[in-house]
Amino acid sequence: MATRIDLEVNGERHERDVEPRQLLVHFLREELGLTGTNVGCETSLCGACTVLMDGQAVKSCTQLAVQADGTSITTIEGLQTNGEYHPLQQAFWDCHGLQCGYCTPGMILAAADLLERNASPTEREVRDALKGNLCRCTGYHNIVKSVLAAAAGGES
Amino acid sequence: MSGVLGTSVKRREDPELITGRGKYTDDLTLPGMLHAAIVRSPHGHAKIRSIDIAAASAAPGVVAVYTGKDVIASGVGGVVPTGWLLPNLKTPAHPILATEKVRHVGDGVAVVVGEGRYQARDAAELVEVDYEPLDATVDAKGATAEGQPQIHEEAPNNVAFDWDLGDKAAADSAFEGAAHTVAVDLRNSRIIPFAIEPRAALASYDEASGLTLRMTSQNPHLHRLLMSLASLNLPEHRIRVIAPEVGGGFGSKIHHYPDEAIASWCAMQCGRPVKWAATRSETNATDAHGRDHVTHAEMALDGDGKILGLRVETYAAMGAYLSTFAPCVPTYLHGTLLSGQYDMPAIHIRVIGSFTNTAPVDAVRGAGRPEATYLVERLMDLAAIESGLDPTEVRRRNFVPADAFPYQTQVALAYDSGNYEVALDKALANSGYADLRSQQAERLASGGKLLGIGVCAYIEACGIAPSAVVGSLGAQAGLYESAKVRVHPTGTVTVFSGSSAHGQGHETTFAQIVADRLGVPMENVAVVEGDTDEVQFGMGTYGSRSAAVGGSAIAKSLDKIIAKGAKLAAHVLEVADTDLEFHDNQWSVKGSPDKSVAWGDVCLQAYLAHNMPADVEPGLEETTFYDPANFTYPFGAHIALVEIDRETGEIELLRYVAVDDCGEQINPMIVEGQVHGGIAYGIGQALWEEAVYDEHGQLLTSTLLDYALPKAHNLPSFELDHTITPCPHNPLGVKGIGEAGTIAAPVTIVNAVVDALRPFGVKHLDMPLTPEKIWRAMKNGEDV
Ligand code: FES
Ligand code: FES
Q1: Ligand 1 centroid to A104 CA: how many Å?
Q2: Which CATH architecture has domain A87-151?
Q3: How far off is chain B from A70, nearest CA to CA, in Å?
Q4: Counting Cβ atoms within 10 Å, is residue B249 exposed (0-12), middle (13-18) or buried (19+)?
């Protein structure tokens, strides 16, 4: 039995019928074709699927699509404005904050949530904020550097 | 753009990846695509009595359900073979779907193909397999004891091979009358490679074009070859393997597994595209794991702390089947590294490879070399204590001196270059080592948290590898790399490389090589990899080989382009091509730089062919299969500072200082990124990660709840530095850096922790160093 949901994704409104058990991450990837949101564990532990729901970072593998009814979602595809990179996207590029890139969309969105709450975090605060997002490639060194650089850029 | 080599150019890969546009395998869909779910054994060891597919077949959305019998009936090879043979190696067949017996949790027994991902997974639950559970055996050494369950009939006592290297008599006699001997019994823990992207495959087949397989691969040509020869019996030219974006590999995406073959076979049966995407617990139970050694090692030293000899016996788990490169990892990638950075007059190692009811074990980042470094550097710390020397001093006394290269070790390798003392000195200076030692003493006296300082001096052999050498050692493949450089009429360039990046940034670094050598702008260079239809052949990316072997192949092809271009330019200038030199993107007469022909004119003429020398064909494209003359030998010194809570045993990693020498650096930013990731990978094994099987062969750590990866909040930023000792035998002077951190970090951390616990009489602890283990060691130590 399909359920109708009505939500906004990257500024665009979508009304869709979904299976009640469909995960939000699969809805985004398979129904809307937004494959920038990745799946690393399906158990809310790796953070690869992180998106912003009403501005807050959530793991879209632990949300059902039906739970997203009435919300506004931002995925990595929705982060650019007028073709300009978000400061975090730019900083990840500038600081070599990614290698394989699989964790990157989730990392960037988790960091966006942090910077929304705390515009100039310390290194410790960045590390603590990202503990739900795993990266196997970078050792986090340049990810932390990227987030700090984005924060610094935002201030100046 | 001469001079671009050696600069930190930003990666061209990134715009796709930071915007979510990059496509990984599971991001791809094809019209009419079906989903496959593989039914896997929940038992470590069991006979298959029967499989009932009726309920699954009738489930909604199910298109087909197949078992191993269907695979056999289809007449295909249906197996995945090993690609490395050792003398007397037992090579039991590894069917892509088991029919008689399952040998590890995760062994596939059936596959459900359905319209939707959820439908296929649901129906997989409905496949009823009647198992007769058998006793299991899971320990690398224990499995070889008398009376253990037999995993393969053809391998008595579960012994896959019994191999040795070095001079046993010489090693034994080194111990006679030695002033000092030290010994350690250790376990190099089993780890899960854990790329954040699970393995996946998307196969499509039609009579006209054959099979197209998009998959998470570090080496598409190897996968195509083994798929053709052993799994599908489809002619090689009718298979195209493509690696789209690949979300990390760390070795796990080198190997040829059953699953991708099953997806391909299903696509051929169904006549529709089939996708298989592993869940996290599925990929953790079936990706080849790493390490899993049980080792006894001993070192003999003279009264001055000079090494006289080394003896090692290692039991190395192979898991339930021999994975693609499995037999090579504990032997030729491990035994050959035992001389470390040291002048060791006598070495002997024996390695017994054992079958166990676990996931197969194969190359994982570092592959054999972290294990070798681990045991050598643990012994060096014990030797320091025994000889009454500082750990840095005992290492220094034994270094192969800088003027002794090339240096022939007692375990086959000939080190081409090195300057070990300089790297150590730099690490000591950068860490403020002497000062750290006084802080440590003050802490101990004050009764506060304990400080520990860990030192490691490592070597690796990478740039894998000279084909004739590996062929004589059992490889069923050559380990050269190919590169085709195609210059277009307008002077832009496309490079086709047999390497296959999955995060290493080849599109950037390979373009840097081209831009530097030809003097063309980087944006005029495209790099193509990871597609068997585009690239003639390639051995792929692993063993820190892409720059040293793949990059060298590109450099050689570029030199051929310049040489051919010189003939065309000489023809125009009416001089001999030997009178020309190429720089600044033009050929000019030596000594009269104003007599020159520009790059663009030569490229255009090569294709117009209106004015060619008689013996030169039109076109400008060159291919090289570069076969390295030797391995490359990166080295370095790492130092860690840890703090241990005496009450709880908790460890905090305060500082990590690394000095690495990977020769010339194509892109220092990328080099540093590789070192960061490698160090974190090694720290993970030292402190948190371990794949644990119970005695029934149940994997107790298949999810992230039980398998702890390093996280941002439990690592510090790393303090990196480098020395540069160029590789003397390849055209770029590069050596490789992808694995160095992972080779050095586990033992650096363990040495630091054991150093902190010295006051408690602790000599060795096995990884992972959990707070409980530390706490117990302190308690037991206090009792002593
Ligand atoms: S996929 Fe959602 S947290 Fe891992
Ligand atoms: S960049 Fe590969 S997992 Fe983070």
Answers
A1: 13
A2: Orthogonal Bundle (1.10)
A3: 24
A4: buried
Strands (E), B68-166: 101-102, 108-114, 128-133, 159-166
- Distance CA(B554)–CA(A21), nearest Å, equals 51
Q: Residue B616 in 3-state DSSP?
A: coil
The two structure tokens encoding residue B113:
């193909």
Distance CA B321, CA B324 (A): 10
Percent with pLDDT over 90 in chain A: 96
Strand order in the sheet with B274-277: B62-67, B108-114, B34-40, B274-277, B200-206, B210-215, B239-242
ω into residue B465 within 30 of 0, thus cis?
A: yes
Residue A105 has its nearest CB partner, among B20, B280, B679, at: B20
Residues of each domain in chain A carrying CATH 3.10.20.30: 3-78
Q: How many residues appear in chain A?
A: 156
Per-residue pLDDT tens over the stretch B569-627: 999 999 999 999 999 999 999 999 899 999 999 999 999 999 999 999 999 999 999 99
Q: Which residues of A touch B541 (CB under 8 A)?
A: none
Give tens-digit pLDDT for B32-48.
Answer: 999 999 999 999 999 99
In short, whether A137's Cβ falls inside 6 Å of ligand 1 is no
Query: Rounded to the nearest whole angstrom, what is the distance from the C-alpha of residue B601 to the centroid of ligand 1?
Result: 54
Q: Which fold has domain A3-78?
A: Ubiquitin-like (UB roll) (3.10.20)
**A74 close contact with B: CB closer than 8 A:** no
Distance (Å) from the C-alpha of residue B680 to the closest C-alpha of chain A? 5
Give me B625's structure tokens: 């299969």
- Neighbouring CB atoms inside 10 A of B8's CB total 14
Q: State the closest ligand 2 atom to the C-alpha of A107, by its place in the atom list counted from 1.
A: 4
DSSP E strand boundaries for B92-199: 101-102, 108-114, 128-133, 159-166, 180-191
Annotate B488-524 with b (16+ C-beta within 10 A) or e (fewer): beebbbbbbbbbbbbbbbbbbbbbbbbbbbbbbeeeb
A37/B704 touch (CB, cutoff 8 Å), yes or no = no
pLDDT at res. A154: 54
Cα B321 to Cα B98: distance, rounded to the nearest angstrom: 12
What does the block give as tokens for B164?
């040795």
Other C-beta atoms closer than 10 Å to the C-beta of B169 total 9
Q: Name the β-bridge partners of A36.
A: none
Alpha helices in B271-368 (DSSP H): 280-286
- Ligand 2, residue A100: give the atom nearest the CA: 2
Size of interface A-B (CB pairs under 8 A): 178
Q: Which residues of A touch B20 (CB under 8 A)?
A: 34-37, 75-77, 105
> B535 near B221, Cβ under 8 Å?
yes
* Least CB–CB distance from A131: residue in B29, B195, B713: B713
- Of chain B residues 7-26, which have a CB less than 8 A from chain A? 10-11, 13-24, 26
Domain span(s) for CATH 1.10.150.120 in chain A: 87-151
Q: Is there a contact between B14 and A92 if contact means CB atoms under 8 Å apart? A: yes
Q: For residues B199 and B29, what is the distance between their CA atoms, to the nearest angstrom?
A: 16
- According to DSSP, the residues that pair with B661 across neighbouring strands are B635
Q: Closest Cα to residue B394, out of B168, B182, B184?
A: B182
The answer to whether A142 contacts B673, with C-beta atoms less than 8 Å apart, is yes
Above 0.95 for ipTM, yes or no? yes
Instruction: For residue A27, report the distance from its CA to the centre of ligand 1, in Å.
Output: 14
What length does chain B have?
784
With a CB cutoff of 8 Å and minimum separation 6, the contacts of B407 are B343, B400, B414, B415, B418
